[in-house]
Amino acid sequence: xxxxxxxxxxxxxxxxxxxxxxxxxxxxxxxxxxxxxxxxxxxxxxxxxxxxxxxxxxxxxxxxxxxxxxxxxxxxxxxxxxxxxxxxxxxxxxxxxxxxxxxxxxxxxxxxxxxxxxxxxxxxxxxxxxxxxxxxxxxxxxxxxxxxxxxxxxxxxxxxxxxxxxxxxxxxxxxxxxxxxxxxxxxxxxx
Length: 191
Description:
This protein is mainly α. Among the domains are: 1-46; 94-169, no CATH class. The protein has five helices and no strands. It is elongated, with a radius of gyration of 35 Å. The N and C termini lie far apart (106 Å).
């Protein structure tokens, strides 16, 4: 029985010793953290005492952050307006942005003819067909796939924008240039 008690006492002493070592390590870490905080505060307080030109640079950084936040808010509000416009119920005579986007994504600029300005869509579609047919005769299809993988989604986005512009203005609108204002004598719409 005495041997068991001695063994339990030795085990308890070993646990206390391990506990004390861990506690000493924790105290040392806390002391290091306190010292680190003190040095950081000291550095921070010396940074506030920098000459005037350095402060101006810091103010510019703050202004950039404010502009970044403002830009993010502006982008979010634009995204919200686009979302609302896409969810709006179509009126009679409106072009479907889904059809326009799919046609443009599948057919390239030929899909722009659905809602796009005739001045842009017709030459682009003709150029697309001519250049595409020549490229297919000269280049292997494997080399053209990267062009299609980038160009067709961009064309689909342009098709959606064409349809949204059509619905917003009630007629075909140019994307890649501004129409010069003209007086309409016949009362009809011009593309």
